[in-house]
Amino acid sequence: MYSYHDDISLLAGSKRRVEVLESLDGESRRQSEIADSCAASRSTVNRIVGELCAVGWVTDSSGIYSLSAGGRHVLEQYRSLSESVEIIGKYGSFLTALGDTANTFPIEALADSDLVEATPEGPHTAISYFLDVMENTSSETLSGITPIVSPILDQPRSELLEAGVSVEIIVSDAVAGQLRSQESPIVSAAVSEQRFSLFATSQRMEFGCTILDDRVLIGAYDAAGNLTHCVNSTDDSVRQWTIDQYEDYKTNSVDLPRRAERPDVEFLEVG
Does 78 map to a domain? Predict the structure, then answer.
């Protein structure tokens, strides 16, 4: 009985079969030409061509072989799958660290993004990379969310604000509680600095992000709150995903200085 799993195994089980399909992409060829293109023996090509003809991916017209419509579609899908597997191999740990947020992430766009990951040998690699990007940015605006007390909170209040950058940050209620208990000047800065806005949200945060004029930075954290991954992307789809996430958090947030004036609203204190 026919099973499409057999056809999948046929293609995935041999790099040579993919090479034969690739050699016929956009060009009809004789077996000898296929063999030369794939650097394969004619006996190997003869066997593979027979297999591919049998499943309907290649057609034979008097010894001239071509991709069928179905074969072309299979090849396109194989390329797409190969790219996805390669991306997951590189970015899998980042996506895992994002948690459920990764379910809507434009994964294919990561191929054109940069990833820096902390390692046991370099535990501060990701945060150092993030701070380096921030130090060298020429962006006139910055929007971001952070689930932890981080250097991103001090930097907008000082260097970036001094450079005339408009800053808007959303923190978790847990971070807001820390800022209040520590009597952090960040909260008062959000009152005194017109270009600095600080918001708090009770919505669960599984990642952090920074939106600049020309790029977005997305951070993933471990259970201890350490930045473990930092993605730097200028891709439009990644940027739009990040903006959508940010706007969702902002919709469910409250201006922190204004919230502090409401005694009926309790911050989530960190134990």
Answer: no
